[in-house]
Amino acid sequence: MPWVVLVTAGLIEIVYMAALEKSDTFTRLWPTVIFVVGVVGSMAGVAYAIRSIPLGTAYAVWVGIGAVGTALYGMLFLREPAGLARLGCILLILVGVVGLNLLHNASGGETA
C-alpha cells in the first residue's frame, strides 16, 4: 500500500504543478485552490509512504514521477520543446527511479 500511495502522491504533484501554471501567480482562485489542496495531499502521501519506504528512495520516486510527468505535460499541452536531448534526460530520470526501486526490492525492502 505505501507504494500505491507514493505513486499517487507523485501523480498529484503533476496536477498541482499544472494548476500552479494555470493560477497565473495565484491570481486565479480555482487553480490556486487545486494547487494548495494538491500540495497538502501530495505531501501527506509522501509522509505516509516514508513510514515504510526509505526516505531517499521515496523522495526520488516521488520527485521522479513529478518531474517526468510535469515535463511531459509541458511538452504535450504547453508547447514546450520536446527535443531528443530533453527526451533522453527524461529517460535517464525514469531509469534512475526504476533502478532505486529495484535496488530497494533486492535488499529485502517492501515490494510494490
From TrEMBL:
Keyword Cell membrane: yes
GO molecular function: transmembrane transporter activity
One Pfam family per UniProt: Multi_Drug_Res
Membrane-spanning ranges: 33-50, 57-78, 84-103
Coiled-coil regions listed in the entry: none
GO cellular component: plasma membrane
Chief location category: membrane
InterPro entries the record matches: EmrE-like, Small_drug/metabolite_transptr, Small_multidrug_res
UniProt superkingdom: Bacteria
UniProt keyword terms in alphabetical order: Antibiotic resistance, Cell membrane, Membrane, Transmembrane, Transmembrane helix, Transport
Membrane topology field: Multi-pass membrane protein
The UniProt record lists the keyword Transport: yes
Location(s), subcellular: Cell membrane
GO biological process: response to antibiotic
Record family assignment: Belongs to the drug/metabolite transporter (DMT) superfamily. Small multidrug resistance (SMR) (TC 2.A.7.1) family. Mmr subfamily.
PANTHER family recorded: GUANIDINIUM EXPORTER (PTHR30561:SF0), SMR FAMILY PROTON-DEPENDENT DRUG EFFLUX TRANSPORTER SUGE (PTHR30561)
Designated name of the protein: Multidrug resistance protein Mmr
Organism: Gordonia alkanivorans CGMCC 6845
